[in-house]
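Q: Entry one of two.
A:
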Amino acid sequence: MVKELLGIPLNKTNNNNVTDKEFEELCQALNPEEREGAFEIYCSNNRDIELTCQLLGIKRCSKKGHRNQNTNLNVNREFIRPKAPLIWPNHELQEPAEVLFQIQSHPLVIDIHYYTCAEATEAITKFLTFHQSKKTYSELCIITGKGNNSERKAILKDHVKQLLKNMNIKNNVDPTNAGQILLSLKPQKLKITT
């Protein structure tokens, strides 16, 4: 009936078996009814694969033989778990924690164990810039460590205190833990004298 409506002779023989097979391969993903309808459209277009594929939205490889090439998949049988982002410092390997992950996971605390003074300055600057942009008025904590594992005199805590002093940020050592510095970014009240 569809052939009659489209004007295709019922006894028409397939003169080009190669293109018909190619079109059938292209239509393998379609269900049987859709495949039959697609083939009718293909026949009504005088077996023009390009035109039919455009009408049906079927992607066709431009290079001949490309579809039939075997795809070699390189599958590694061992699953290598990606290294988890380091949030807190690794004391065994003496690796510092990554600043951005610390801010994301524990925004009010930054741990600068194993940082050099230059790295600590950069980390604290990022930490404070983040909180100034968010207008955080909660108490913030910088963990410097007590310096018990330092080869010489611990300098990181003194460096951080001097850095905060230069930034005009009031701070004090945590009375319960000498390895922590507490600070707040609350706007300071101005004393007006008359």
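Q: Entry two of two.
A:
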Amino acid sequence: MNSEPKTLLLTPAEMTAADRAAAQSGIASYGLMEKAGQAVAASALRHYPQTLRFVVLCGPGNNGGDGYVAAQALLEAGASVAVFALGDPERLTGDARRARARCLVEQHPLSQLELKSCDTIIDAVFGAGLSKPVSVGLQHVMERAAMAGLPVIAVDLPSGLCGQRGIPLDRAFQATHTVTFMARKPGHLLMPGRSLCGDIEVFDIGIPSRIIRAAAGNLRANHPVLWQDHLPSPDAQSHKYRRGHLAVFSGGASHTGAARLSAAAGLAAGAGLVTVASPKEAMAVNAGQLTAVMLRETETGTQVREWLARAKLSAFVLGPGFGVGEKAREFALALEGRPLVLDADGITSFRESPARLFEPYSGDVRLVLTPHHGEFSRLFPEIAENDQLGKAEKALLAAESSNAVIVYKGADTVIAAPDGRAVINENAPPWLATAGSGDVLAGMIGALLANRTPAFEAAACGVYLHGEAALRAGEGMTAETLVRHITPHVWH
């Protein structure tokens, strides 16, 4: 997977491995700590120049060492600084012990901390190196800081936040700013971690990029550099059939709007042709609302198969407004492993028998599942119930077990492939959480599949373009206005 710095995410374990590899290559580990601490100090002075006192909270490990370096740098810059240590600082070892010895700021136990209204807190207690809930004493500090509304600069990660899962282990600091080093971690992007980190700065402290790339796994931040080369490039000979024919299945007469949204989105996202496959009872209402999108009466699985035998259909969207039950299962199975975006009711229809869905898609990866949390829990209950796993890990396990691309939706949508690749999306604005936006997303991914884009790249691109369209539409948008702001293939 592409290792552009803007996309790199390293788990805490991977970052530890990178630190170890840097030391083995001859890079002085204390030199890295000095650069990290100085970066924190520089960020604090740049972003909080009004601060009358920087309160540096130092923990019992290397994160605390970064804090001692930052405190000394702030002192040398002329700032007022106070250091408060968690635990017995005399038990520090290695680089952290050296950093404390070089810090000339008067140091006090954390229990003696009295916060003032002019303080800015630098949280250098645990960072990413925490695997259990923080102490009661530190939780009280967190509560007092939150009640006073004080700025908090987190070093690496807000203490108490799991860097792998983005979940507080019990309670975590609410940071206004986070300074991390070399690459972000999954916990910076996954919710609620993203909201606990505030603004995030990534500083290069001198670990060679080859070491960072070697340590990184297959998890990335979603970005065009990862998939833009897989998108079709229109040329002078392009025509509607080369851009694919997308079919979207409609629900009954009172549930047609979702399918039309998906169809309109598919057309806007670049499908050459789009047809809504409608039951007889909904033909009139669909016909009265469709213009460029075509319409075909389709009642049964047999009719679906007959259509497949006669028409050049490239990809399908099933689920939005379709209804839960045997008909949805029948239609999905009639598609026989063809490129399919299964959404909403289509997913829920297989909750009692997911294997019936997965078996026809056991070959090439052509199935894209787009569940929100509730739908994910229905289709993958055992995975969903495992609290030891983060969202990205759950999505990857689901992708492997289903041989499908999983679009695990939310403010932190995760897209995972059966081969172990995964991306976390981060460009979706809050107002994208509105009725019908998921139907739009299904149509956009369907259009990319119709254009012969591989399933993982189609899903990752669709999710990203969905977020970009919402940003252009602006706050207060509806699903209908969202469709009007879709711009396909903007990097070609």
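A: Comment on entry two: The first helix runs from residue 12 to 24. The CA atoms of residues 380 and 398 lie 7 Å apart.
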